[in-house]
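Usage

Read records sequentially. Each one opens with the input sequence:
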Amino acid sequence: MQRFAALYAELDRTASTLAKREAIASYLRDAPAADAAWAVYVLGGGKLRRLATSTELRQALSASTGYADWLIDESYEKVGDLAETITLMLPAGDGTLADTSLQSWMEEKLPALGRLESAERIEQLREWWRRLPSTQVFLLNKLITGSMRVGVSQRLVVQSIAQWSEQSTDLIAHRMSGPWRPDAAALQALTRDADEGEHLADRPYPFFLASPLENDVETLGEPSLWLAEWKWDGIRAQLMRRDDNVGLWSRGEERLDGRFPEIERAALSLPADGVLDGEVLAWDAASMMPRPFTALQKRIGKLKPGAKLLTDAPVRFMAYDLLEIDGVDLRERPLQERRTLLAGLLEKTDAALMLSPSIVADAWEALATEREASRERQTEGLMLKRLDSPYRVGRKRGDWWKWKIDPHTLDAVLLYAQPGHGRRSGLFTDYTFGVWDGDTLVPVAKAYSGLDGAEIERLDRWIRAHTTDRFGPVRAVDAEQVFELAFEAVQLSGRHKSGVAVRFPRILRWRTDKGIGDADKLDDLRRLASG
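and closes with the structure output:
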């Protein structure tokens, strides 16, 4: 694990995407294949099970150092990352486990740790810490807690593998989609030379992602060159039917089998095999419009929904692209051709499969008018797709744009703060905001993006000087600071103490010109949620 620990430290030291890619590619060239496979899995976002609780880690640290609990808690609060806190407080290990391979840790030692009783697990942690150098202690604790944030995206890992193996990024991305087993054979299969007409029948295609439209829409040229359709607010997914086997994959490459059985049954009514790109939506058959995303949330966590839930929260698959038909990859064909084939495929299928309607307009002004009706249609704006565009991989600008409606805004008061993660672990960067419910400020939203570095540091100093109470890593603060928040929608919700759920909140600006009396009221959000 010594080589991977050095890579992890190098990735943590730099913000340069190019430097990160070079570091990963260099590691892959030199590391044993089995270790490299596990590195790809871990850095690429593979799921890691938490193997020890925070309490067990603290107890192991206290037993190893003799430090009082209050000192450990104060140090953790200051550092903001438990793995780093432990590393800083432990004495140096003797290094006798330093040469243990990453494969051995991932396949033998760590799984065995998870099977121990709590007291045995604490003793095992202490032994490992005594026998590892500090850099490996830090990495080991990251692996144990399942928190591996180091500024590396799956896309960056794909690019690094492509650079090392001299294969195309699109091919690597497709081979890595879906389940991927981290072993030497899988790594070799991932990087082998491309086969003519290679067909990965058990995997979804990498998703093509739209970019936000930041310039004037008229800079796109003639509207006749573009397909306009609604930007649906659901679960992005690929619906696959191959040889009468149906699969539904989320954008996060998670199999959704069994969660939306009406969509899976409908796929069997297709006149041909195919892979459809689209959106899973909660659907109101009476109005022929999508229901709010909160209605869909009732279905997301249910692996096998019962009859009542299927009736109360029906869903539809809104298809807007066709990536494959009868085993033929269509992604390089123009969108206009793919859509014509899609329309024909869906012409006589089950009602649970729908074709995303196109919005016809001969001028951008007319489309802008249509866009203003987005909220009434429970959509987020418009999608603009070049009619001659192929289906690309990832977020490549130029062919697909999301032209979203302007967000809602509210003025809210900062109530709580807690440290961030990774590079922000030593700063308070995650904030909870409230609005007025009568004479009381009630929490309604959490946000962690929107401030620049200087503002974060200034607010961090203010939070430390104005803390009124502490709840673990969370601090309550004096109700003095007002922030303008943007959000996409708000829904009534019995799951939240405030009675409302705010969707995608983020900070627009710090309103130092306003006092807390200027903050919005909960009744305003309730009225907005009610329609």
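Summary fields computed downstream for this record:
- The CA atoms of residues 492 and 530 lie 7 Å apart.
- The chain is about 35% helix and 25% strand.
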